[in-house]
Specification:
- The protein has two domains: 1-30; 54-260, Sandwich (Jelly Rolls), CATH 2.60.120.560.
- Helices cover 11% and strands 41% of the residues.
- The protein has helices at residues 3-21, 25-29, 190-194; strands at residues 54-55, 65-66, 72-75, 78-83, 93-97, 105-113, 118-128, 139-148, 157-159, 164-167, 171-175, 182-186, 202-209, 212-217, 220-227, 238-243, 249-260.
- Strand 13 and strand 14 form a beta hairpin.
Length: 261
């Protein structure tokens, strides 16, 4: 083989590899091998997250989030919202993720809350004026996966400053906008499901796709809402977390992961 041919081949290979290096890893590796089911296969639990999740909290700062620093801080991998005897509030206030307004998504996060605490994860939400505390720039209206330290409400779908209780823990509901939500089916007894929630760290997994809203805690479905109230529902919006009116409390969040669907 001549020196000219060898040189040209090297140049060709170098240009090919250089072009591939700018592509996503999946494109470099080619399409994934398709799954071919066998009769013996059954659904199985997943270890870790499916591909596509991204962190939305750096664990050290509140970069990308907006809220009142009087109530919110970050350190050691944990996002903390706290109300003290000297910082009691008259209306709920939120820490808001400013990285987008997700439509269809999965969200995973761990939380820990004091026994007297009340919080929640809002999604597909908007910022609204606060008539009780006009200086509060972080009031929100929208869907909420409810959280409280006594687990009276944890896992509910509650629309903050909107249509209120859309689904209570243990329910699959249909929201029509013409009457109160209709219970279609049961996911389990409310009290039994509450017993699965610990006083330490718990994991939340939300699946929000179209008009179906699923709230899971510690791997168990707590509520499913089918929202056909076209006039009342919202199909995208902000994510935020809440500190609630009441006595002193502390809510902690860690390991925020978001996946667009």
């Amino acid at each position: 083989m001549s020196t000219i041919v060898t040189t040209e081949r090297r140049r060709f290979l170098a240009s090919l590899l250089g072009g591939l290096s700018g592509l996503p890893l999946a494109a470099q590796q080619g399409p994934a091998t398709p799954y071919v089911p066998k009769q013996s296969d059954r659904p199985e639990a997943l270890r870790g997250d499916e591909p596509g999740f991204k962190a939305i909290f750096d664990g050290k700062t509140l970069a990308g989030w907006e809220g009142d620093p009087k109530y919110w801080r970050a350190a050691g991998g944990v996002m903390t919202g706290e109300i003290t005897p000297s910082t009691l509030i008259k209306s709920n206030t939120f820490l808001i993720w400013r990285g987008g307004t997700p439509k269809d998504f999965e969200l995973k996060v761990d939380y820990r809350i004091t026994s007297g605490g009340n919080s929640g994860i809002n999604y597909r939400s908007v910022v609204v004026p606060d008539t009780v505390t006009p200086g509060n720039r972080f009031a929100m209206r929208g869907y909420q996966c409810d959280i409280d330290g006594l687990n009276r409400y944890t896992g509910n779908n509650y629309e903050e400053k909107g249509r209120l209780f859309l689904a209570v823990r243990g329910q699959v509901t249909h929201v029509t906008g013409t009457r109160s939500p209709i219970v279609l089916s049961s996911l389990g007894d409310n009290t039994d499901l509450a017993a699965l929630i610990t006083s330490d760290w718990n994991s939340i997994h939300l699946i929000v796709r179209g008009n179906v809203l699923m709230h899971m805690v510690n791997g168990r479905a707590m509520s499913v809402t089918i929202d056909d109230d076209v006039a009342g529902r919202k199909m995208d919006g902000l994510i935020g977390v809440q500190v609630h009116v009441g006595g002193p409390m502390k809510i902690e969040y860690r390991n925020w992961r978001l996946k667009d669907l």
